[in-house]
Sequence to fold (333 residues):
Amino acid sequence: GSRPAPRRCTATRCPAGSTPLKFQALSLGLGDQWPKVKKAYAAANEVLGDIVKVTPSSKVVGDLAQFMVQNNLDAKALVEQAEHLSFPTSVVEFMQGYLGQPPFGFPEPLRSRIVKDKEVIQGRPGATLPEANLARLESELQERWGKTGAPIKQRDVVSAALYPKVFDDYRAHVALYGELTSRINSNAFFHEMEEDDEIEVETEPGKTVVLKFKAVGEIQPSGKREVFFEANGIPRIVEVIDRNAASTAGVSGIRQKADPTERGSVGAPMAGEVVEVCVEPGARVEAGQALVVMSAMKMETTVSTPVPGVVQHVAVVKGDRLEGGDLLVSVES
Fold:
């Protein structure tokens, strides 16, 4: 017969297969707070209405749990402050009805405070989708990506139709780094290799390259480092941009922190990368208007201004990697 779920899973409502969530927490710098993340998962689950958890909805709960830990929020504070918080996109879209309608309805007043004046979907989301013109989409993909990397195939068209942003991000990655990165094992791809670590990469059927990491050079004024490695025993050197360096291109990596006593001093709600800056200095903004979009391990968050006013300072640009609390934008109300 089937075995019951471990007590730790039922107590936290954290799925038994929680490895992706733990890996995401490690990548967000929350590895040493994993017990808090699991506890927050139970709290987030209850706040959302104890929803049925499959891959998309479990991600919503996991994203909210990590958001709560990063911002030191319990369930009560989350609901009370919801109107002024910049929630992960997955949580906002869940509340908008993008995943469908929960059997017991959406939790109020939390939903109204998160959604505000955004559009909501009634009923099954797919019922209102327009018909997909796959032939036209294939033509658009050929024009946009056909000259970079592998040619567009039918599965690419389907992937782009289902997950347009994910597909564009993937093709942009391939255009920059090539296709072989997909053949590197996950541990080597996501984690730093240690000196003399070896991996095997199959570059084509029947052809395997053994890569051995040797060392990393000092940071250069250009923000690049030399990486020393061996390919099938032959020494190689490549230059790479160090995005995590404290100083790149002569610009100090010490970032100003947002002032928690000033509501117009808007900080990063989590560690991550800036994927879009939506405002410029001098722009007039309304409360709730998007300022910056951040992403971390597939958890995207649109950071909005809690106050109306004029943008005085934009402290980030696209591609910046930030820690939680780093200043994004200053708004004078």
About this structure: Confidence is low (pLDDT under 50) at residues 246-252.
